[in-house]
Each structure stands twice: as structure tokens, then as C-alpha cells.
Design brief:
The complex is a heterodimer of chains A (143) and B (435). With 143 residues, chain A is of the alpha+beta class. Chain A contains 5 helices and 7 strands, in the order βαββαβαββαβα. With 435 residues, chain B is of the alpha/beta class. Chain B folds into 2 domains: 1-328, Rossmann fold; 333-430, 2-Layer Sandwich (GMP Synthetase, Chain A, domain 3). Chain B contains 11 helices and 21 strands. Chain B has helices at 8-11, 15-36, 38-47, 68-73, 107-123, 143-154, 166-175, 185-197, 219-229, 342-351, 386-404, and strands spanning 89-92, 102-105, 131-134, 157-159, 180-183, 209-213, 232-238, 245-250, 257-259, 264-269, 283-289, 300-306, 308-309, 321-322, 327-328, 333-335, 338-340, 358-365, 368-376, 409-413, 428-430. In chain B, the strands form 5 sheets. Chain B has a 9-stranded mixed beta sheet, with helices on both faces. In chain B, helix 5 (107-123) packs across helix 6 (143-154), helix 8 (185-197) runs parallel beside helix 9 and helix 10 crosses helix 11. The longest helix of chain B has 22 residues, at 15-36. The chains are: A alpha+beta (143), B alpha/beta (435). The interface between A and B is medium-sized, with 20 and 16 residues.
């Protein structure tokens, strides 16, 4: 059920992010979501893209250190309180969220959450049990 | 185990006999240099020493030192002790750290150099039945010509492949059944990896021994090479200034290199004061060529830091042993008052599962030394969590602290962002301005 997140290791210096996004746009890969975690020295780029295979190949060929991992994708209504609701469901089930980021869809009145947790299956089961719609890579590529 | 000697009478000579031989050679050599090398004669005159003051090895300390700077000053002919018409060859250093060194050889110089390499090959188990693949560079670099000559003297079938073209190396190695490989340790490691990629197992190739030198390497690297090639890996030491590889070589004990001290007399000195240190002390290695005719350096400061030992060796050789150099006087950093050698950092990295691709940056902020070590992240340990990366940096900093006694700031950087070694990578950036 989970979706693929591309994780890229870069130095925390000017131009690091643009050289990644530039390579992706040149190979026709569309970014759906991007989040950056950084320390003083380094950055870890987390990307959700429409074509993760191409993105992985292009970045690897250009010498980037890449890791593709499964993360949980959830569709929530774009309305106040909806994020809190989703997070509360996980909290009640004792599921710790390592990090998360969100993005809005262009056409629908929906937002999408990307959640990094230890146990994807457990998180997916409580979320769908609480009525949330989970998304897949197929959904992502249609967005 | 059978002990293999190339020149047994020399290699197992009683120490007092060796000293007498060295003394006799030194007296003759000092005369030869004083009479023929104006540059060194001036140095001796300034020190108030004449050949008449030198009666044996016990007087060696009276002679002035030669340094790399002298070699640059005297370039190209200033230290030549024979007419050019008596010389048959030059070899040269890469010259990456300044002006290149050009060393001259008479035919006799070449012969004794090749004898030294033959001793090394024989000590590694080489006989005339062996097939010896020389994958050191041929040309100005001493590695290829030296081992090539030594291999001829032993009577091995010599494969003069020179360095590079790994596919061809492996083809000759497998088709012609090379049993001994001579090259730099990093190239040996690379050949090992390539063999594995091509689907060979160590037992598929007849290689039994390797003679590796010309660059620093660690015990960890030795184990890796021995495993990947299924061989015993022997260290060899030398420098163009004295001849080339074969100044010292390892025996089956693999606990240091026997110095060919009938040709090259070794001393350990305090690099600050120049004082000769007793056996077992750590200091700068100094060589005196006792037999070289064309380019006979007396008391040449190698800048290598090491230890000499006369402990009895199980191989039966009585030649003094030098430890693998622990670094160079010009590599040594003093950070917060502590001596730090880049080679120590390399050892820790390999132990902790990192590639030895690193860069040390030292600076001084508000009268305190900063000490940063940049290390390339490995694909195996990379995760998407910043907390994991920070934990890896901390753990590596802890391991370095244990080895060095001071705490570095470790920074993991993306792969291939630290310039790869072509033999002389910039490992140290010292930004301190201390004047």
C-alpha cells in the first residue's frame, strides 16, 4: 500500500538542491512533494515523484547517494482539524511519527500527508480503520 | 618453513661483522663524496669535518645531514659523484611536492639496487620457477624498473605489465599463471575487487605472494588484499633518493622490514634536534648510501617517522628491521599539543567500516585549534533520518578520540566529494597561521 520516497544525501551548501531538481526536470520527472532535513553540514532531501524509477536512475548515474524507502501516504480533506485527526489516530495506537510532510493536490479539495513511521503496516491499518483513505504510487502518478 | 635468502652471507651476517663491513664502506664512501661532490664538501667544511675524522660507523653522527631542500638546491647535477659518461640511467620522483628529484646510476648502482629487489622477492618465496607480474609503473618511477631487475636476478619469468589496464593485467595473470604480483597496495586491492567482479575466486588464480609498496598502507588493508587475492602480502620500502624499492623488505614474519644495511645504513634521529636516538626510539629515518657511486647521499633525511629494531627475527636474517613508517615529519600535525598522523585516522576509518576517503581540516579560532574530519558516507549505512547520520558522526568521533586522544568534529559528506587519491591526495588542510 505504501508509497515510495526517494531519499538523497547532499551537502548543506548553496546549489545542492537545485542541482538535484534540475536533473529531475531535465529527465521529465515531476515532483509531487519535497522535504528537506538538514544539519549544519548536510541535507537529506526527501522526494515524492511521479516516476521514482527514472528519478533513482538519473540521480544514481550522476553520483548521488540515494535510498528508496516505503512511507505511508494518506489523503485528508483540506479542512481545519483534519491533520490533527489523522495524527491523533496514530498517537492513540502508540505509533511514533519520525517525520512528516504534506502537499495539496491542484484540483481536488484534498491534502496529502506523507508519514515516516517504524511500522508502515500498523500505521496504515489504524488510519484506514479510522476512515482515512491511503494512497499508492499509482495514485501519485495520476496526480 | 624453508628460509629463502638471495645473498645468505650478507642477510645472515653476524652483527659485529656487519658493522665492520659498514665501517670500511663508510670510510671509503666519505672520501669519494668529499672528493667529487662540491656541494657536500662545503657542508662538511662548514661543520669542520674532513674524511680523516671518519674512522667507522661510530663517527657517522659527525657528518652533516642532507634534506629534500638540498636535493632541490643541487638539482640537477650538484650531488653527482661520477662523470656523466660513467652513468647509465636516471630515475626520478613525481615532483608533486616541489621540484622533482633526479637520481643517477652507474651500472654497479643498478646492479646493487636489483640485488636488493631480488632479496625482497626471494624473501617473499620467489624462485626461478615463479612467474612474477610487475604492475608498478615503468619509466621514471623506480617501482617498475627495480622489481623488474630483481625478478630477472632471481630468474623468475617476468611479466612487465606496468601499471593500469586492469583487464589486461588479469588476463595475463590468469593465462600465464602469475605467482607473484608486484604493485602498489591500492592497485593490488583494486585488482582484487576486479577479479571478484569478474567472478574469480582467490583459489582460481595461482598467485601466492605480493610485494607491495611505494605508498602508505595499513594492516587492515593488508588483510583485505591477502583475503581477496588468496596470497601473503609483503611490504617493501624504498625511495628514489637512495635507489628505489628494496631499501628494506619484509620476510615471512611480516613484522617489519629488513633494511639492506650493507648498502644503506639506517639511523633514527630526533627530527627537532638532529640527535641520534637509541634503538627502539621513534624518530625520523635517515639513510646513508654506503655503496652508491653516482648519487651517494650521506645522512639523507627521509622525513619518514619510524622505529628500528635489532630483535632476533625468526627468518634468520640479522639485518636491522624498520617498522612501517607511521607517517612523515611533514605529514605530522600537532593539534592541541597532540601529534596526529593522517595514517592513524585512516586506520580508524577502515576499522569502522568507512572507505579511507577523508580530509582533515585544522584551523585556529580564538587561540584554540579546531579539528574537523570530513568522511564520505557509505551507501550501506545511509538512511533517511538525520538522527542516524548524527549518531554515526558521533560514534566515529568517539573512535577517533580513542585513537588520537583528542576530539574531532566528524562530518559525513556525500560519496566522491573528497578528491580521489592519485597517490598524492590533499588529505590535510591546515589553515592555522601561527606566526
Amino acid at each position: 500500500m505504501a508509497i515510495k520516497q526517494l531519499t538523497v544525501f547532499v551537502q548543506n551548501k548553496r546549489g545542492s538542491v537545485v542541482s538535484v531538481t534540475d536533473l529531475l526536470s531535465q529527465s521529465g520527472v515531476d515532483l509531487r512533494a519535497l522535504s528537506i532535513a538538514e544539519t549544519q553540514d548536510l541535507g537529506i532531501l526527501r522526494l515524492i515523484v511521479n516516476d521514482e524509477k527514472t528519478a533513482e536512475r538519473v540521480l544514481t548515474e550522476n553520483g548521488y547517494l540515494i535510498k528508496v524507502i516505503d512511507v505511508v501516504g494518506v489523503k485528508i480533506a483540506d479542512a481545519p482539524g483534519k491533520l490533527t485527526e489523522a495524527l491523533s489516530v496514530l498517537d492513540r495506537a502508540d505509533i511514533n511519527v519520525e517525520y512528516l510532510y504534506a502537499f495539496l493536490a491542484r484540483t481536488e479539495r484534498h491534502a496529502y500527508l506523507v508519514l515516516r513511521v517504524e511500522d508502515n503496516a500498523a500505521a496504515e491499518s489504524v488510519l484506514s480503520g479510522a476512515g482515512f483513505k491511503l494512497i499508492t504510487d499509482a495514485d501519485i502518478s495520476k496526480l | 618453513m624453508a628460509q629463502n635468502y638471495y645473498q645468505k652471507e650478507i642477510e645472515t651476517m653476524a652483527p659485529e661483522e656487519m658493522r665492520a663491513l659498514q665501517s670500511e664502506k663508510l670510510v671509503r664512501q666519505v672520501k669519494h663524496v668529499y672528493e667529487n661532490v662540491a656541494y657536500y664538501r662545503d657542508l662538511m667544511d662548514k661543520k669542520g669535518v674532513t674524511p680523516d675524522d671518519i674512522h667507522g660507523i661510530e663517527d657517522l653522527h659527525k657528518l652533516p645531514f642532507l634534506s629534500k631542500a638540498d636535493l632541490r638546491d643541487a638539482y640537477p647535477y650538484g650531488l653527482l659523484a661520477k662523470p656523466l659518461e660513467d652513468c647509465v640511467r636516471i630515475q626520478s620522483t613525481s615532483g608533486t611536492t616541489g621540484r622533482r628529484v633526479v637520481a643517477f646510476y652507474t651500472q654497479k648502482d643498478i646492479d646493487l639496487w636489483e640485488d636488493c629487489c631480488a632479496r625482497a622477492i626471494t624473501a617473499a618465496g620467489g624462485t626461478k620457477k615463479d612467474v612474477c607480474q610487475v604492475a608498478y609503473g615503468y619509466g621514471l618511477f623506480t617501482g617498475g624498473p627495480g622489481l623488474n631487475g630483481g625478478s630477472h636476478k632471481v630468474g623468475c619469468l617476468t611479466l612487465p605489465l606496468s601499471s593500469g589496464n586492469t583487464e589486461r593485467q588479469i588476463q595475463f595473470m590468469t593465462d600465464l599463471g602469475a605467482t607473484i604480483l608486484c604493485c602498489t597496495p591500492s592497485y593490488a586491492a583494486y585488482i582484487g575487487e576486479s577479479l571478484k567482479e569478474m567472478g574469480y575466486k582467490p583459489e582460481d588464480i595461482p598467485l601466492k605472494a605480493g610485494i607491495f609498496g611505494a605508498e602508505p598502507w595499513t594492516e587492515e588493508m593488508r588483510r583485505g588484499i591477502e583475503e581477496s587475492l588468496g596470497i601473503k602480502a609483503y611490504d617493501i620500502y624504498g625511495l628514489t633518493e637512495t635507489s628505489g624499492p628494496g631499501v628494506a623488505f619484509e620476510c615471512s614474519e611480516q613484522t617489519g622490514m629488513h633494511v639492506n644495511e650493507d648498502h644503506f645504513y639506517a639511523e633514527i634521529i630526533d627530527p627537532e634536534t638532529g640527535e641520534v636516538l637509541p634503538e627502539g626510539s621513534k624518530g625520523e629515518l635517515v639513510f646513508t648510501s654506503l655503496d652508491k657511486e653516482a648519487f651517494p647521499l650521506l645522512r639523507y633525511r627521509t622525513r619518514d617517522i619510524c622505529v628500528l629494531s635489532r630483535k632476533k627475527c625468526s627468518c634468520g636474517r640479522t639485518l636491522v628491521k624498520m617498522a612501517k613508517p607511521m607517517g612523515r615529519t611533514d605529514d605530522m600535525l600537532i593539534i592541541r599539543g597532540v601529534n596526529v598522523f593522517p595514517s592513524q585516522i585512516e586506520t580508524v576509518l577502515l576499522n569502522e567500516g568507512y572507505q579511507p576517503n577523508y580530509q582533515i581540516v585544522v584551523d585556529r579560532v580564538k587561540n584554540n585549534d579546531t579539528f574537523d574530519v570530513n568522511v564520505e558516507m557509505t551507501p550501506e549505512t545511509f538512511t533517511d533520518k538525520v538522527s542516524d547520520v548524527v549518531a554515526m558522526e558521533k560514534s566515529l568521533a568517539g573512535a577517533l578520540k580513542t585513537m588520537l586522544g583528542i576530539n574531532p568534529a566528524v562530518h559525513l559528506v556525500p560519496p566522491k566529494t573528497i578528491v580521489r587519491s592519485e597517490g598524492k591526495a590533499v588529505r590535510v588542510i591546515d589553515k592555522r597561521k601561527l606566526v
